[in-house]
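The record is given unchanged here:
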Amino acid sequence: MSAQYQRFLKVLEKWPADKTKVGRDLGEQIRKQVTKLTSLENGATDKELGRQIDALERLSSNVYAKKYPRTYESTATGLTAAQCSQVLSSEFMQYLNEGAGSKKK
């Protein structure tokens, strides 16, 4: 179990939590899942933990991004990756919600 926990920690180092997406960040969700999987109450088997760690290691190492590289830099929305990140931030979501609320009045 401790060897697997060390592997989880290495994945978490590669995947820091994004403070701009509190409650919606994948890094944050992975940390919650690690806590859940490694708790003694849950009793996840070594095989289950191994499968989860393997999948997270593949994702954090960009295995699939390297295996299937994108041919275009654009997205379906026409925004760049940086613009998409900004639009998905909690601050922008709050801005949109406040703006939509003020128009309804």
